[in-house]
Design goal:
This protein has about 450 residues and is of the alpha/beta class. Helices cover about 40% and strands about 15% of the residues.
Length: about 450
């Protein structure tokens, strides 16, 4: 199975950027060299992680980073998207932890030496636990703590970073962490989700201000995840239900960035669910972006279940990944076109796209042709959006390697590289070889 695009695709040119991506808590381990974070606490709470595992070792990237950078180089990618562990680089008092800073400087310098552009995410969900103890993202002050962290670390990194993203997927932090209780810190209250989301977006805006000052030559922006919402039928009720779901789960996080306001559903929220918006907040949130990252995996289908209420439904007889997500590549191109129509977008990067599959290591290889097919289909969906006029500059495969998959523990494998968690042996899956070969053919 090969990955291919139309002969004249702009993605076949060398100036279109291809990369791989990871996140600090999911791969690093090195737990003794940093402060505790909310995911450490969540992992130590019974019945939160499906296999009762934790991130104490993960892929041991903290110790094996040099061989992992060699691994990245072997894939012929242009860029590597990594996240910084806030509790590794900032002390409880708010100063730089030089040991943690030096770890990342070593990684960044090695990447640059090999000609690989570092795309750095400042927050990929691992909030320091001491900040959560003071209210976490429900506390407005956390946004200012994040600004201070962004200021210190971007100054320390100097000109090493090609691109900074403030946040990865604020929807997941706010909704899954504070409203649904599925992710750390595991709070479950409808009155929390929108409040946490507002403070996250405020943190983004505040951090953008310092990034543009400290790192004016970097591409500075944010990464949002989108799960496009489709109606089960063409009935007005189902169309309305899918639109309301879209406003809650997708538009809530992007509309403030460009329109300086939340979607109109805010007018129907009960008082206890309303975010606490102070004068000037929306202007701070809507800082000009050098780029926006789009993370995409699947779509969701909704039906109406009561007036202005929605319920997600399962589509029968369709292909799914091992995590249960429908494979529907067309939703990616349709998403990109709709965002392009709705907002004055900066250049876009597909910052995550990939699939969990039921991988088996047999005789030293992993024949994951289903994942290669997923990449082939979705890269072509990106190409369709580019041909329709969307300005997309790059694509990152999620993930470089199998890792700690949050509430799923180590049960789901998203990597294009297989990790044996007992030996920490890395093995290129067939999808990694197909991705490498595809990248290498560009002109």
């Amino acid at each position: 199975m090969k990955i291919s695009l139309p002969f004249n695709s702009k993605m076949q040119k060398r100036d279109f950027l291809f990369g791989v991506a990871t996140a600090s808590f999911q791969i690093e381990g090195g737990i003794d060299s940093r402060l505790p974070c909310i995911w450490d606490t969540f992992c130590n709470t019974p019945n939160k992680i499906r296999d009762n595992s934790d991130g104490a070792t993960a892929c041991d990237h903290y110790n094996l980073w040099q061989q992992d950078v060699d691994l990245i180089e072997s894939l012929n990618v242009d860029a590597y998207r990594l996240s910084i562990s806030w509790p590794r680089v900032i002390t409880a008092e708010g100063a730089l932890n030089q040991q943690g800073v030096d770890f990342y400087i070593g990684v960044l310098d090695r990447l640059i030496e090999k000609g690989i552009k570092p795309f750095v995410t400042l927050y990929h969900w691992d909030l320091p636990q001491h900040l959560e103890d003071n209210g976490g993202w429900l506390n407005r002050d956390t946004a200012y703590k994040f600004r201070d962290y962004a200021d210190l670390i971007s100054t320390a990194f100097g000109d090493r970073v090609h691109s900074y993203a403030t946040l990865n997927e604020p929807f997941c932090s706010a909704y899954l962490g504070y409203e649904a209780g599925i992710h750390a810190p595991g709070l479950k209250s409808r009155s929390f989700g929108k409040k946490a989301a507002h403070h996250l977006l405020l943190a983004h805006g505040l951090a953008m201000q310092v990034l543009q000052k400290n790192s004016p030559n970097a591409l500075n922006g944010i990464v949002l995840n989108f799960t496009p919402c489709y109606p089960q039928s063409n009935s007005l009720q189902d169309l309305n239900a899918s639109n309301i779901a879209d406003a809650h789960f997708n538009q809530w996080y992007i509309k403030p960035l460009f329109d300086k306001c939340y979607p109109s559903i805010i007018e129907n929220l009960p008082a206890e669910e309303l975010p606490q918006i102070e004068s000037g907040d929306m202007e701070i949130i809507a800082q000009p972006l050098d780029f926006m990252g789009v993370n995409f995996y699947t779509r969701a289908v909704y039906k109406a279940c009561a007036e202005n209420q929605f319920e997600q439904v399962t589509v029968p007889d369709v292909p799914h990944t091992d995590i249960g997500w429908e494979i529907y590549p067309k939703a990616l191109s349709e998403l990109l076109l709709s965002l392009n129509d709705l907002y004055p977008l900066p250049p876009l990067y597909i910052t995550e796209n990939g699939a969990a599959m039921d991988d088996k290591l047999q005789d030293g290889s992993v024949a994951d042709e289903d994942r290669t097919q997923y990449y082939h289909q979705h890269l072509n969906a990106v190409n369709d959006a580019i041909e329709a006029g969307v300005d997309i500059r790059g694509y990152f495969a999620w993930s470089l390697m199998d890792n700690f998959e949050w509430a799923e523990g180590y049960l789901k494998r998203f990597g294009i590289v297989y990790v044996d968690y007992q030996t920490q042996q890395r093995t290129l899956k067939n999808s990694a070889k197909a991705y490498r070969d595809f990248i290498s053919l560009r002109t």
